[in-house]
Design goal:
It is a single chain. The chain is an alpha+beta fold. Helix content is 37%, strand content 18%. The strands form six sheets. The chain has a four-stranded mixed β-sheet. β6, α2 and β7 form a beta-alpha-beta unit.
């Protein structure tokens, strides 16, 4: 979608944002994009919002004011809970502080990192240290005093008698280098502070120095189980900005590949949930069948984890001659296997005892914390981008959006199971009807995107994955920002797990389905 920005007076910004939610129904904060707009505008943010009833989207642009070389904007974390981490990310990379935010700390970078690297005037310094990062036990809250001067105060993160343990970053159940600083009362969780950045690679910053075709190579290294969808969003926003008309053959193949990738991810998900709860047999069943999915993809893409298949204007190559027959055989094979996962693990009494009422989150909280994907649909939120903002062939085939109302980890698992059946339904309707035509629409040797701002999103394997693009008409993006699937999911761990046990934390982490490179980028 091409973005047309709303803008408000700085003094009225907070109240106008509240009106957008309370009076106009924009209850879902999709993402906050920090940006150095350059020139007279300077630093600021772009807010992308959605009305979850009508699925209408809008964008708000707010420039920061500066005092004592510190840019600031009023917080919206009291309106949308997901803004807590999103604003900390903007502060980390741009140095914008948010008035009224209770916990202004860096999110990805070390506390002693010098400067804010996404500013256009930031200069790279190759110095590094082997010293431990001394983390503060407080968050800063900025505010304007009665005289309008910028002030800050410290808010303690821990009480004097709090017992704090670290789950991760060297814990197998965190599914990567994620650290959850957990405050306990006995075995009961009182508070969780997530820590990211252990594998942060600065992909969005690297993109600013790359041509558009070069940017594609990095998408498969985010959530490596959703490589197709990540690249789909990136090529999608570029193609929309350039007004590229794709052939039906490209759309069919992309849709099939996206659903094969979803099967790949969901099979590993069901396997890892079983493994985290100690059910090794169910883990092996899922891993066994995932190999069949990867075989179908590999014969066309040449890869099993890193696919490198979509490109601006279409596909890297046409499908393999055996692709259609092998995918049809896969669909026939997988249908009874999914029931087998339920027989072995999903309907086991131990599984129900471990996952039911574990990590609960209501529909309203899922929307406020932007818990999209299967985790949100387990609370009844019809958040599927394929239905709400259809792309490629998703509005041309019959399939159901899977929702449940248990609002717990058991239903999150069951939504994944149900979605595998729907993926098979989508593939089955398309695989025999792939039309003839070009698999690639030829582009100019040097790709330049017209000036403007766009946002394009797809339904990733764990929720909405989107890409914001600000182009100044050059061969490289001026600013490109991802909406990762996992950041908002981990941000919801704290309200989900307060009052739960440590064992429930492990089970909920498994059921939420986060992959850390997607968060850290």
């Amino acid at each position: 979608m091409k973005l047309e920005f709303l803008s408000f007076d700085f003094e009225k910004f907070a109240s106008e944002m509240l009106n957008l939610k309370s009076k106009k129904g924009f209850d879902y904060l999709v993402t906050i994009v920090g940006e150095d707009f350059g020139g007279e505008e300077g630093l600021g943010c772009v807010y992308i919002l959605e009305n979850t009833n009508t699925h209408e989207r809008c964008a708000v642009k707010q420039l920061a004011q500066t005092q004592n070389d510190t840019p600031y904007i009023p917080t919206v974390s009291d309106i949308w809970k997901v803004a807590d981490l999103l604003e900390r990310e903007v502060y980390d990379f741009f140095g914008i502080v948010f008035l009224g935010h209770k916990d202004m700390r860096r999110l990805f970078l070390r506390t002693d990192f010098k400067g804010h690297p996404f500013r256009k005037d930031w200069e790279f310094n190759d110095k590094y240290t082997l010293e431990d990062d001394v983390e503060p036990d407080y968050g800063l809250e900025y505010y304007l005093d009665k005289e309008g001067k910028l002030q800050c105060k410290q808010n303690k993160l821990f009480e004097a008698d709090d017992y704090v343990i670290n789950i991760g970053p060297q814990h197998p159940a965190t599914h990567g280098v994620l650290r959850l600083q957990t405050v306990l009362d006995g075995e009961t969780v009182k508070r969780i502070y997530p820590h990211f950045g252990y594998i942060h690679r600065g992909i969005e910053k690297m993109w600013e120095g790359m041509t558009y075709p070069q940017t594609l190579a990095l998408t498969d290294r985010l959530n490596y189980l959703g490589a197709m969808q990540h690249r789909h969003a990136l090529v999608g926003v570029i193609e929309e900005a350039m007004e590229v008309e794709l052939t039906d053959r490209i759309k069919y193949i992309r849709t099939i590949m996206d659903e094969l990738q979803r099967l790949d991810s969901h099979l590993l998900y069901t396997s890892c949930v079983a493994q985290d709860l100690g059910a090794l047999t169910a883990f092996l069943y899922g891993m066994r069948d995932r190999e069949h999915v990867l075989n179908c993809m590999e014969e066309t893409t040449g890869g099993r984890l890193i696919q490198n298949y979509y490109r601006i204007g279409g596909l890297q190559d046409d499908i393999d001659p055996n692709f259609v027959s092998n995918v049809k055989a896969l669909v026939k094979y997988l249908r009874p296997m999914i029931q087998e996962y339920m027989d072995v693990f999903g309907d086991n009494v131990i599984t129900h005892n471990r996952l039911e009422k574990c990590g609960p989150m209501s529909l309203e909280d899922c929307i406020s914390y932007a818990v999209t994907g299967p985790a949100g649909r387990a609370s009844g939120w019809k958040s599927d981008v394929r239905k709400n903002h259809p792309y490629d062939m998703y509005d041309k085939v019959e399939w159901e959006q899977c929702t449940l109302t248990g609002c717990d980890s058991m239903d999150r698992y069951l939504v994944h199971i149900n979605e595998m059946y729907q993926s098979l339904n989508i593939i089955e309707q398309l695989i025999d009807n792939i039309p003839e035509g070009d698999f690639y629409v030829k582009q100019k040797p040097i790709i330049k995107v017209p000036e403007g701002q766009w946002y394009y999103s797809v339904e990733g394997v764990a929720g909405e994955f989107g890409v914001y693009l600000d182009s100044r008409g050059d061969k490289s993006p001026y600013r490109m920002k991802m909406r990762p699937m996992g950041l908002s999911l981990v941000g919801a761990f704290d309200p989900m797990l307060r009052g739960q046990k440590i064992a429930d934390l492990i089970a909920t982490c498994a059921a939420i389905d986060v992959v850390i490179p997607d968060i850290d980028r």
